Every structure is written in structure tokens, then in C-alpha cells.
Amino acid sequence: MGSESKNIKTKTGLVVSTSMDKSAVVQIESLVPHKFYGKFLRRHTKFMAHDPENSCNVGDRVLIQECRPLSKNKRWLVREIIEKAV
Questions:
Q1: Who's near 45: CB < 8 A, 6+ residues apart?
Q2: How far is CA 58 from CA 15, 22, 28, 35, 75, in A?
Q3: Would you state the pLDDT for residue 86?
Q4: Residues of the chain with pLDDT > 70: what percent?
Q5: Sequence-separated (6 or more) residues with CB below 8 Å from residue 18
Q6: Model pLDDT for residues 27-85, shown as the tens digit of each residue
Q7: How far is the C-alpha of 15 from the C-alpha of 1, rounded, in Å?
Q8: Which residues lie closer than 8 Å to 3 by C-beta, 6 or more apart?
Q9: How far apart are CA 73 and CA 85, in angstroms?
């Protein structure tokens, strides 16, 4: 049991809101092909992530990882800030 390796999911996205205490809303963009035409469509999903130091600002590119449920909507943790907003 102790030697099991966990596959921790990580995603990279853009911070779109930091109005809550110790939380950030991160938007993930993905390209999905259209079933018939094959054209790529831009889709986005928003995740609430835990930011314990309130170090994120709007416009930052961050790496988030999956964690245990921290509240009703928070299931992700801000692991690192990849690029600061200008």
C-alpha cells in the first residue's frame, strides 16, 4: 500500500479573479476539434484554486494541481506562478 504512485493532475491557466480571500479563479483554455468540419474550436473552463499566501494577481499564468475538496467548489491548489502579469 505504501508504494502506490499517485497520478496528480496539473493544469496551466490564467488567473481571472482574486476577489476572494485565499482563492483564485483560473481559466483553462483548450482547442477541441469540431466533429464534422475538423476546425479547432477554443473552449475554456474555470476552476477555483486555493492560494494560501494570496500571491496571485489577475493576469498571472499559474500551474494548479488537484487536491482534496477544500470547500464546495475548491478542488485545486495553486502550485506555482509561472509568469507574472505586467
A1: 27, 28, 30
A2: 5, 14, 14, 34, 20
A3: 85
A4: 94
A5: 24, 25, 51, 54, 56, 57, 58
A6: 999 999 999 999 999 999 999 999 999 999 999 999 999 999 999 999 999 999 999 99
A7: 37
A8: none
A9: 25
